[in-house]
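Researcher: We're teaching a course module on how sequence relates to structure. For the next exercise, students receive a sequence and then see the predicted structure as tokens, so they can try to spot secondary structure elements on their own. Here is the exercise chain.
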Amino acid sequence: MANDFWILLAMVIYFAAMLSIGFIYSKRSNSSSKEYFAGGRGVGPWLTALSAEASDMSGWLLMGLPGLAYFTGAADPLWTALGLAIGTYLNWKIVARRLRRYSVVAGDAITIPDFFAKRFHDRKGVISTISAIIILVFFCVYVGSCFVTVGKLFSALFGFDYHLMMVLGALVVFVYTIVGGYLSVVMTDFIQGLLMFFALAVVFVGTVASAGGIGETVAFLRAIPGFISGTQVASPTLDPQTGKQIVEAGKAVFGAPTDYGIITIVSMLAWGLGYFGMPQVLVRFLSIRDAEEVRKSRIIATSWCVLSLASAVCIGLVGRAMMPTHLLTGTDAETIFIVLAQTLLPSFVCGVVVSGIFAASMSSSSSYMIIGASAMGENIFRGLFHKKATDRQVMIVARITLVVMFLFGCLVAYDQNSSIFQVVSYAWAGLGASFGPLMLCALYWRRANKVGAVAGMVSGTATVFIWHNLVKPLGGVFAIYELLPAFLVSLLCIVVFSLVTEKPNDQMLYEFDHYMDDPLPGTLPSGSVLVDEPMEAMEAEVRSGKAE
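Model: And here is the predicted structure for the students to work with:
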């Protein structure tokens, strides 16, 4: 009981600190919608890098990935982590700097739907509305996965009721997000990124030491068929009555390993494609203080990602050697990080470390909620229904959206047997296929147009649903992760529909050709203002003092 007190005290201190940050930034964040949704484009490289990674990884990094490694061995988490590490680097390398600069040229866009709409000169709001709806649908699922993590955390630590703890944890996230806006999210994500890294490092080192060292650990794991193979998956033998892994003579029973073929490897590597369409990461590129600081952020983010992923996988593997019969279902295995922290660390330190799990869930769910709120307030309400809406009205709509996302996330998370890994993989595929190909085409292909953009988003989303529910169950080559076929279908549709419809106008082509120039372009070569309509051009000239 005393141990629980110290763990709980450490976590309460942490919660209080996170809520305080929300209130500290509330005045600045509420000064305008640009401050609330993008931090006024004044976020430095360290905050940008660590907040992007913390919001991206979520509780999946500290629970889903180690749990997968613990239950079925190295293959699945190893190839997934490799795909994510490569995707992280490429996203920062080929998207970040270009998106930051193009978003300024494209009407100072502050959200991803806003950028797509202005990049393709969509004055009717079709692109922004479709992209905002996609974000809301998949981010509600994402928020639910984070709330699952919170419920499992407190249930495993203290034996508290899962549903009560899930709702209370979700409320903490909701309060500091609705009060503090984007800046509070970025600052808390930065702190949480540091805490997640500290938690992984401490538990990893402690686990290896307690398991008897690297040599003995590897020998134990090699004795489990296929457990540390990159081309096989260990097969826990389950009791058909209870669904739990069978234990005989104090040892967990495994059957013959299953082959991990090239299709499955490609599926796991395909996770990296998702980064090109992840709004919670892409919005960090929009908000960084200067495009020239992207390189520094890339180094920080990639280093954090590689070390954290490697530690998470190793914790699951070594955890099996240390506690071979402790967790007997795939769902229970997702608590291995918590169990190890409780076993290895002093109570207060354990409280700090497991706060890393809550940190991961808070950072991600808050990012998803603020982006979903911005999609509804900025892109649907102001962009489609009320173009003259004030910032105050937009933020009211955004906060109502936060309430709806909070409630829907709780509904998704109500089933405590939900697999964090599976829930995340579905939402990841949906966002990656809907926005990833479009983002690459928007930044690198001048012929892409509005029709192609709409076709790409709709086809990507539809393919994820169809492939996951109808095609994937067929097995064989069709069992590939739905992100890859959906990504390719979306890319093909963008290209085909762009080529068979009207070419981009001169305005769009000029912006594309010069958005990487210094200084950033403001006029066409002829001197005409960068707008499409004659009346708007005249008004712009009057404002700039060029008209008499």
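Model: If you want an answer key for the exercise: The two ends are 80 Å apart (CA to CA). The chain is about 70% helix and 5% strand.
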